[in-house]
Amino acid sequence: MPEPRPGDPPEPDRYADAVRARRTELRGVRALLLGGHRVEMRHCLTASRLVAVAELTAALSVLGRELRHHAARADRAGRAALPALAEAAVGRLVDRVVMRWAAVVLPGLRRVASPLAPDAVPFLHPVVTVFTRRPSITVPGPEPPQRALGALVAGATGGTWRLAVLPVAVLPAVGLPAVGGRAVLAPALGIALALVVATTRAQRVAADRARLRRWADEVTAAVRAALGTELARLLIDVERVAGAELDELVAGRLALVEAELRALAPAGRRGTG
Length: 273
What we know:
It is built from seven helices and no strands. By secondary structure, the protein is mainly alpha-helical.
């Protein structure tokens, strides 16, 4: 290697250039660490909340449709069992909505934490614990079904009594006198009673189905309001726990950055970064 001559440009100090480049890089990392993780976390949680609301809307639509279908098709025993079936269905709905929300939140938070720690899995453990706390949703009960006597009275006031005179009205049409003594009166009364009972029963079943259809709408509205409130509360808990865990990761990473900056600082500026 030839000896430098007077007037030649100085040889580049590659080590000093590398140190300056590294210090510039570390200052950029430090600037990103100061508060940026909170903004990223909130963006992640806001996007996940939209997913949870969409999932809740779709699940409630299916639940309401199934409840109304059951109310319209089930027999008496099936209608009596509908409230218990609805409560179990709401429990499954809550679990599904929360778990699908967690499936969106956890990968997002892991992406936020990955630049801060080589292994972000331990950071997620407290957040997973929050999601395991199942929200408690109370399903409103239906109004009691109409009693048989009440249905009979309602039918009488609604015009069902007219069926009682129908057999007498149609007797002349079949060649029998309207007033024919006991021989004709007994069959006519039997037919009238059967018509009244059958009509009253049909009206009672229709009223019971209508009652359960109204209740199905009340259930979906109540679950929507209650679970929406619980999801908002869960979001606050997740933000609090995840924020604290991220702050701890950031503090650890900042300590390493600051230590390296101090080590790379010129001899007269050690400790200033």
